[in-house]
Amino acid sequence: MKADSIRFSFQIPIAARVRQFAAATRQLARAALPGQCALCGNLSQALLCGGCDAQYWNEQRLRCATCALPLAASYLRREREDVRAHCTACLEAPPAFNDTLALADYRAPLDTLAVELKFRARLAAGAEFARHLHRVFEDSGLPRPDVIVPVPLSRPRLIARGYNQAWAIAQPLARRLGVRSDASLIARVRHTSAQSRLDLDTRRRNVANAFAISGDVRGRHIGVVDDVMTSGATLDALARAFKFAGARRVTNFVALRTPKD
To answer: Which residues form a coiled coil (predicted)?
Structure first.
C-alpha cells in the first residue's frame, strides 16, 4: 500500500510535465513550420491566412431575422421602424425557433470549410466558425442563451463518421459565450435519410418526431448549433421539441446558410 501511494504521487507530476512539454513542442512546431491557408493555400500559422480571414467573413447581407434567409435590400422599407427584417414565409408561418444567426451564404470559398469539417474531420474549422459566430452574436443585440447544444446525429451516423461536426462548433462557441454546452440534452431517436436529398415537404416529414429531450429545459433559452442550414426543417423540428418541453426561447447559430431553400 505504501509503495502504491509513493508511485501514485510521482505519476501525476511526471504526466503533467509530459503534457506541458508536448503542448510546448506543438506550439513551437506551428511557429517554425506554418501550414497552409485552408482557402487560398498560402503559408499560414492559422487555419486561414490574414487576407482570407479579413475578406470572406465580412459579407454584407440583409437576412431574415428568424431564419437567416438572404433578402433583397429593397425588402427593408425606409419608413419601417422595425429594422429586423423577416421573410414572407416566416411572417406567414413562423417556425418554432425565434432567431437565426448565420455567418455567410453556403457558397465558395467558405463552403470548403464546411465540407472539410463535416467529411474530413478538420475540427479546426469548427473553432473558426465558433470564433466568428461569437462576434456576430455580440453585434446582434440578442439575449445570451442559457445553454448551447449541437444538432444531434443518429447513432448509426455518429458511429460511421466518428464525430459530430456541429459539436465541434458548439463547444468552442459555448466557451466564448461563457455558457454551458450539452450534447446530451437532445438526442436523435430516429435515424433519418440525408436531408440534402429531399424536397422541403419530405424534409419536414423526415425529421418529424425524430428528436427527444433528455433534460429539464423549462423556462430556458436554448442555443442550437449547426454547420449548414438549408430548409430549416431540422432546426424547426428541434425547436418544436424544445418548446414542447417548456423552453422559453430557441436561437439558431449556423455557420453557413444556403441562399435559397
So the answer is: none
Cell triple for 9 = 504521487
Q: Give me the architecture of the 97-257 domain, per CATH.
A: 3-Layer(aba) Sandwich (3.40)
CB 152 within 8 A of CB 184: no
Domain ranges of the chain: 2-33, 97-257
Cα(121)–Cα(110) distance, integer angstroms: 16
**In the beta sheet, which residues pair with residue 138?**
none
For residues 96 and 235, give the distance between their C-alpha atoms in angstroms, rounded to a whole number: 8
pTM more than 0.85: no
DSSP type of residue 67: T
Residue-wise pLDDT tens digits, 85-134: 899 999 999 999 999 999 999 999 999 999 999 999 999 999 999 999 99
Cα distance between residue 61 and residue 103, in whole Å: 10
How would you class 115 by CB atoms within 10 Å of its CB: exposed for 0-12, middle for 13-18, buried for 19 or more? middle
How far, in Å, CA of 5 to CA of 204, rounded? 59
Cβ count near 200 (within 10 Å) = 12
Q: pLDDT digit string (tens) for 174-208? A: 999 999 999 999 998 865 555 455 455 555 555 65
Specify the length of the chain in residues: 261
Here the cell at position 237 is 423540428
Are the C-beta atoms of residues 43 and 49 closer than 8 Å to each other?
Answer: yes
